[in-house]
Amino acid sequence: MTCAELRARLDAYVNGTLSSAETAAFEAHLDTCAACGDFLANAAERPQELNALPRSVEPDADLWPAITGRLAPRRALRRGIPVPAWALAAAAVLLIALSSGATVLLLRSGTHAPVTLSSRLEGVEAEYAAASDDLGRTLEKARARLAPETLATIERNLATIDSALAESRRALAKDPANGVLEQLVVAAWRQKLEFLRRAAALSTET
Amino acid sequence: MRRHAVLLVLIPSLAGSLAPGLFAQQKLERRFAVDSNVSIRITNMAGTTRIIGWDRDSIAITGSIAPGASFFGGGKGGFAKLGVERSDETLAAPGSTLEVRVPRGARLAVKSGTASIEATGLTGELQCVSVSGTIQVDGGLRLLVAESMDGNLDVGGPIGVSRITGGRGTVTLRDIRGDILATTVAGPITATRGMVSRAHLETISGAISYEGDVDRRGTLETVTHAGDVTLRLPATIAAEFELQTFEGKIETDLFPKGRVQHRPADGSPWTFATAGGGAQVSVRSFKGTIRVLKQ
């Protein structure tokens, strides 16, 4: 197995969908290739960082302006730099880690120092926004490879999700202690990231 | 004049015989031996891909390849790869038709752009991804992962674990069993004759409809932002319910008779149990109407 083949199979390896022969070849290459070992370690770094997060989150400043700034509409998209599959695989690993991390952060209530729901959600949303930006950039770079109808489909779906996200967030601003509204906000973020991941994957595969 | 007439007849027929792929559909017929649990990757971006499970340790492919496209394929033992290549994969037409017979227990990964995917008679694992094609799956798969961003998804039969992701298309689930996660953005999710042990149905704006039962110790969870949710459950179901909507309405005729309804008016959850409880049924909605009704 070559380095390029290994990186193309990273997502399948992480998902456990490689055959036993492919898995053996993957791991044999990893044993002998320091560069690919470093690559995998870097891809795995983010989940470890998430695991190392404190169990309670106390932001020392109002994060909301920075978050909304990152979520602002992006400028017109450029055409065409192909994105390697390993970048998407790394993004997928990041997305899985963020989804799990966000769930853990939201569920870890009550066992440690008191944390307001809004401050916990701010931390989660900052991570979601960063991941959304990463996936959005990946999609932008590969956008030229998508058919116009596919692009239109992606944009319509994202508009629906963004509208729901904004509505849930407005309701939460009025009732910041409402845990179910928090869950609806997180559900919309999760759908958005999942959709971006699928769109970015399509753009590199077609 | 006569020479011109002869040329008019000869040129197309010569061109057709020299480069059939450029001018006409090519008929396809291939077959090769593989293991019974072979992993197979199939790519056909436009047209139709039909997969049929059979009781032989071989793959047989028939179909027709669109003009300008070419078939590739081969495999041995535990791995096979086949599909159709085109010079411009973003084009929706013309499409190719592949009918692929595979060992029932195969593990398949199928990719499509606008092509529809149909699978039947499989008992192994199937992962299929499409942009706007429809996906239709019948049978007793161990694992199904199906994604279509704009196409309809139609799944029937007792599948062990299902992960179904739609976009704006409809998701239809018939006779579902076991563990299922189905999400869409704007497309409706409709499940009929369900008997789930663990189900999570989630949309942003699509309606959710579930008709069937829930395993005594199972869970049925639905989450939507703006879609209406309708659950039609047996009148005798033993379950604990948690229903919550912020701007929508809740209607139910399953609430136990003779009890006082402490129905919340401020968006907090409405919880009650029937027949002593057992299964967990929850509905969370921002503004969709929730209906929990007897079958």
Distance between the termini of chain B: 79 Å
**Major beta-sheet overview of chain B:** 24 strands, mixed
Number of helices of chain A: 9
Tell me roughly what share of residues is in helical segments of chain B. under 10%
Q: What is the makeup of the main sheet of chain A? A: none
Give the tally of structural domains of chain A. Answer: 2
Order of helices and strands of chain A: HHHHHHHHH
Percentage beta strand of chain A? under 5%
Could you tell me the radius of gyration of chain B in angstroms?
25 Å
Rounded average pLDDT of chain B: 88
Report the count of strand segments of chain A: 0
Which radius of gyration of chain A do the C-alpha atoms yield?
A: 19 Å
> What is the rounded distance between the termini of chain A?
23 Å
Q: What low-confidence regions of chain A span 5 or more consecutive residues with pLDDT below 50?
A: 53-61, 71-82, 104-115
Count of DSSP-assigned helices of chain B: 2
Could you characterize what this model shows?
The complex is a heterodimer of chains A (206) and B (295). With 206 residues, chain A is an all-alpha fold. Chain A contains 9 helices and no strands. Chain A has helices at residues 3-8, 10-15, 20-32, 34-51, 64-71, 85-107, 117-142, 148-174, 179-205. Chain A starts with a helix and ends with a helix. Residues 53-61, 71-82 and 104-115 of chain A have low confidence and may be disordered. Chain B has one domain. Helix content of chain B is 7%, strand content 57%. Chain B has 2 helices and 24 strands. In chain B, a hairpin with a 2-residue loop joins strand 5 and strand 6 (79-86). Chain B is elongated. The A-B interface holds A 17, 19, 21, 145-147, 149-150, 153-154, 156-157, 160-161, 164, 167-168, 171, 175, 178, 180-181, 183-184, 187-188, 191, 194-195, 198-199, 202, 205-206 and B 39, 45, 78-79, 89-92, 109, 111, 113, 127, 129, 131-132, 147, 149-150, 165, 167-168, 183, 185-186, 202, 204-205, 223, 225-226, 244, 246, 267, 269, 284, 286-287.
